[in-house]
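User: I've been trying to design a sequence by hand for this structure and keep getting stuck. Would you show me what you'd pick, starting by listing the structure so we're on the same page?

Assistant: Good idea, let's start from the same input. This is the structure you sent:
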């Protein structure tokens, strides 16, 4: 079974969200330097309870959501994951588990599949086990390999996701070969984006133009060599093409994110925007949040746009780019995304991309979490 297609066409934002990103927990066994979760993570004791998640999913189904990514952190750390998947299934929502693979057992996977889980996306940091463990900040490659075998044996669709950056872009060929040998259906080659903790490590993560050119050519070559799959998805880098991405398919247009503590956001990184005042499912219903909350209506559509977006022919295609990136780079979320070559701030991006030749910067990792009372998961 494959996920339903998103609504298409130039008719503008649909009336209802199509996808939900459920960040079940910020807790994670890995310590990747590119982590896009916020600097300040939600504590386990502040996470939504099982019953609250079930209610969220009931509301999401009524609102029209058809696909959900169960994410985090590491969603397997929620002991109630099977119940959450079952609640999504009852609400008619297609579920994909987004996981590091650490902690996935045959019995857990069987229970998840029986509850309605439809597919799994596995993160991999490098094709070389030692390099993968180094980037992940702990031994994990062997568990990922084991998890891939379990998913294949269970007959579920399997995707592999690799965040690409300076340390692994040159290993693109080996990464594709790894995905083929694991029998994956899809390989998502996602160039690193700079949000949350990853923004702190930007200098160490930014690739060189030469690396990106080589990897892009490599993807084209592999697509020619693998006409029958796996599907290769290349998520374009932000800083190098002079083009703004249609972030999240538009602000409050197709998707919503529910953070571990119940905060509802138009995108996972939006918690960093000042004055957004995001609503919470503990206080409001999802339909009100989607239709009426200031957080969701602020950058919806095109009326909020400044020039050059306001008068640009691409404004309905890229929606002025990414609000979080505009804020991260200019301190003003209302400005045109500096990734766009037409932005008056594009020089900020060009400067960073041109400096990306110095490999001396080191990755900073989060401090290990302090022990605390176990949360609802
Ligand atoms: Fe997109 Fe705005 Fe750039 Fe036009 S000016 S291409 S709408 S980001
Ligand atoms: Fe928030 Fe792009 S990541 S709008």
């Amino acid at each position: 079974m494959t996920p339903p297609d998103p609504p298409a066409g130039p008719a503008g934002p649909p009336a209802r969200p199509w996808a939900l990103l459920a960040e079940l927990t910020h807790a994670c066994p890995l310590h990747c330097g590119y982590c896009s979760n916020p600097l300040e993570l939600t504590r386990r004791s502040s996470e939504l309870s099982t019953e609250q998640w079930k209610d969220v999913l009931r509301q999401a189904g009524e609102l029209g959501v058809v696909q959900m990514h169960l994410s985090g952190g590491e969603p397997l750390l929620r002991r109630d994951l099977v119940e959450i998947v079952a609640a999504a299934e009852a609400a008619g929502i297609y579920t994909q588990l987004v996981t590091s693979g650490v902690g996935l057992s045959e019995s857990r996977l069987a229970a998840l599949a029986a509850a309605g889980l439809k597919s799994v996306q596995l993160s991999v940091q490098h094709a070389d086990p030692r390099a993968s463990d180094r980037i992940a900040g702990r031994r994990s490659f062997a568990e990922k390999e084991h998890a891939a075998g379990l998913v294949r044996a269970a007959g579920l669709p399997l995707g592999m996701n690799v965040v690409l950056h300076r340390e692994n872009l040159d290993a693109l060929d080996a990464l594709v070969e790894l995905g083929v040998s694991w029998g994956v259906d899809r390989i998502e080659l996602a160039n690193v984006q700079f949000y949350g903790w990853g923004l702190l490590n930007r200098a160490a993560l930014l690739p060189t133009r030469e690396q990106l050119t080589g990897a892009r050519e490599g993807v084209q070559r592999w697509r020619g060599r693998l006409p029958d799959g796996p599907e290769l998805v290349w998520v374009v880098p932000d800083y190098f093409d002079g083009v703004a991405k249609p972030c999240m398919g538009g602000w409050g247009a197709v998707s919503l994110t529910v953070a571990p503590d119940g905060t509802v956001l138009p995108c996972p990184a939006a918690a960093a925007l000042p004055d957004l005042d995001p609503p919470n499912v503990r206080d409001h219903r999802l339909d009100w949040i989607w239709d009426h909350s200031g957080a969701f209506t602020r950058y919806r559509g095109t009326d909020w746009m400044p020039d050059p977006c306001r008068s640009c022919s691409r404004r309905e295609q890229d929606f002025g780019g990414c609000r979080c990136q505009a804020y991260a780079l200019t301190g003003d979320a209302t400005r045109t995304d500096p990734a766009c070559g037409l932005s008056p701030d594009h020089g900020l991006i060009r400067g960073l991309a041109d400096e990306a030749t110095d490999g001396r910067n080191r990755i900073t990792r989060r401090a290990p979490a302090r022990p605390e009372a176990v949360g609802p998961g």
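That's my pick for every position. To get oriented when you compare it with your attempt: Residues 195, 247-248, 267, 269-270, 322-325 surround FE2/S2 (inorganic) cluster (ligand 2) (CB under 6 Å). The first strand starts at residue 19 and ends at 23.
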